[in-house]
Amino acid sequence: MAWRSHISKNLKELRILLCQSSPGSSSARGFVENNYKDLKTLNPKLPILIRECRGTEPQLWARYDRGLERGVRLEGMSEAQISKALEELVKVGASLKA
């Protein structure tokens, strides 16, 4: 999981959208609860925005250089799958710099 410490090198911003109470957002809520502190500790200058709104479909958004953004829908994913989706978004950011 060394890629976690390189998130801020490849992303300008990370946004997680979720609903506070819907079953579809439960894994996203669990991911935030279990991983936010670690991600922020490893990437202290990276803006990690958690947007909670009733009825919102859980999503993960990455903003890269020049305003380019990529998003992933998280509904139905486990916490491990959400972590893998984040890793893939980080890899996209690395490939954009090459």
TrEMBL record:
One Pfam entry name: L51_S25_CI-B8
Annotated S-S bridges: 19-53
Subcellular location: Mitochondrion inner membrane
GO cellular-component term (any): mitochondrial inner membrane
Membrane-spanning segments: none
Keywords: Disulfide bond, Electron transport, Membrane, Mitochondrion, Mitochondrion inner membrane, Respiratory chain, Transport
Main location: mitochondrion
Protein role: Accessory subunit of the mitochondrial membrane respiratory chain NADH dehydrogenase (Complex I), that is believed not to be involved in catalysis. Complex I functions in the transfer of electrons from NADH to the respiratory chain. The immediate electron acceptor for the enzyme is believed to be ubiquinone.
Family membership: Belongs to the complex I NDUFA2 subunit family.
PANTHER family, per database record: NADH DEHYDROGENASE [UBIQUINONE] 1 ALPHA SUBCOMPLEX SUBUNIT 2 (PTHR12878:SF0), NADH-UBIQUINONE OXIDOREDUCTASE B8 SUBUNIT (PTHR12878)
Name assigned to this protein: Ribosomal protein/NADH dehydrogenase domain-containing protein
Originating organism: Escallonia herrerae
